[in-house]
Amino acid sequence: MTIENVMLTLNRLPKISAVIDAGTDWVAIGGIAVTLATVIAGALVTISTFKRTMRSQSELARAVALKDSRQGWINDLRGTCSEYIAAVGILQHQSDSREIHSIFIDKVTAVDSSAAAGLIADWEHEKRRARQSALALKSKIELLSNPNESDFRELIDLARAAFDRAVKVNGGSQEVCIQIVEKAQQILKTEWNRAKKME
After folding, report:
1. SS3 115
2. In the chain, which stretches have pLDDT less than 50?
3. With CB atoms 3.0 to 4.6 Å apart as the test, which of 59, 102, 136, 184 could cross-link to 81 if both were Cys?
């Protein structure tokens, strides 16, 4: 086995040069700009969509709250009208039976004047209670009504007329009560339609 030695001599050094292009790479810069614009546009669209969604949800929540409030008001007006008609009926019955009650009291007085005094006191107490109940319900109808609308003004006038007739003997308050029912039904239907439309 032989080992050979080789000797290499360099007479000159190789020239190494790096070519550096100092020009602008517009394609890369354009790509970065497009990416940045896309991100910003996406963020703006997201913000705009979010604001629109929040606004519409807020409007919907207000409309639903208004509908629920109106439905409660409709139920309250319906209940108050029916209670008022019953109170007017009781008041009319007391007015109509005043004469019979007087005859009864006269007969009891002949037998037991202290018992008659108790019956008179009870009668007067019941009469006051029925009158106060009817007045309170009439006032509640007036408070639940919108005086700017003609249907409500008519309902208020009918409620007043029913009360005025109920305190008179044979006043005929039941005819007015029928008109109250008809007017209340008309108002309630109108208001129900408004509630369904969320107006």
Report:
1. helix
2. none
3. 184
Residue type, position 130, single letter: A
**Is there a contact between 184 and 82 (Cβ–Cβ < 8 Å)?**
no
**Mean predicted lDDT score pLDDT of the chain:** 86
pLDDT of residue 3: 66
Q: How distant, in Å, are the alpha carbons of 10, 11, 19, 102 from that of 14?
A: 9, 10, 16, 142
User: Cα angle vertex 161, ends 181, 184, to 5°?
Assistant: 20
Cβ neighbours of 70 (radius 10 Å):
17
Cα separation values, 31 from 34, 41, 43, Å: 5, 15, 18
Residue at token pair 């639903």: 64
The widest CA-to-CA distance across the chain, in whole angstroms, is 165
pLDDT tens digits for 52-103? 999 988 888 887 888 888 888 889 999 999 999 999 999 999 888 888 878 8
